[in-house]
Amino acid sequence: IVSASLALLVLLTHFFKKTNNLKLTRFRWNTKLLGSIVLIGFPSFLAELGMSVFSIAHNISLDRIAGTDGVASFTVLNYIHGVVLLAFLGLASAAQPLVSYYHGAKQMDREKQTIRLASRTALACGVLLLLVVQLGAPYFVQIFGNFSDSVTDNAVYGLRIFTFAYLFMGIN
After folding, report:
1. Residue 97 belongs to a domain
2. Of the four listed, 20, 53, 125, 167, which is most buried by Cβ atoms within 10 Å?
3. Whole-angstrom Cα distance, residue 70 to residue 146?
């Protein structure tokens, strides 16, 4: 709460500068705009809701199968996966505007060249991340805490299996 409040205070200083272009105004409800926002945002809401239901069901199932140690192990694996996923999403976010531009400009040769370069880069990143995580799995697990041997062993074992998906994740 303290850090969020401090960040808000820093950002609010913008409104007290003479050079600002953004002004606070009185808010008025616009039902047509609100309807458009709900319509556009509803698919994202459903996707997030689905992920929440999936996470809850997954944790309950994993708890029944492997107990709390299994849930803890999988949580560590998910944290590491989240970081790797962000690397691949960053790659896709960097390539997407170029592919869109070339597609819109009907420069199909440049579009294919960009897709090929992005795919090769993703594959190379996948191989590199696979090797790094395979070799450093115990160290990566230790970053997230001092766990029991059971949790650590399960997390390392699961991570070493899971990282083979990195070969395909970047291309996907």
Report:
1. yes
2. 125
3. 15
Per-residue pLDDT at 12 exceeds 90 = no
| Inter-CA distances, 5 with 1, 12, 25, Å | 6, 10, 22
pLDDT in tens, 91-104: 889 999 999 999 99
- Domain span at residue 160 reads 85-172
If you compute the radius of gyration of the chain from its CA atoms, what whole number of angstroms results? 23
Does the residue 167 lie in any domain? yes
Number of folded domains that form the chain = 1
Q: Which pTM does this prediction carry?
A: 0.63
Residues 20, 31: Cα–Cα separation, whole Å: 29
Cβ burial 34-46 (10 Å sphere, 16+ → b, else e): eeeeeeeeeeeee
What distance lies between CA 70 and its chain's CA centroid? 22
Q: pLDDT tens across 29-63, in order?
A: 899 999 999 999 999 999 999 989 988 998 899 89
**Residue 56 domain-assigned?**
no
Q: Which residues are CB-contacts of 88 (< 8 A; sequence separation ≥ 6)?
A: 122, 125, 126, 169, 170
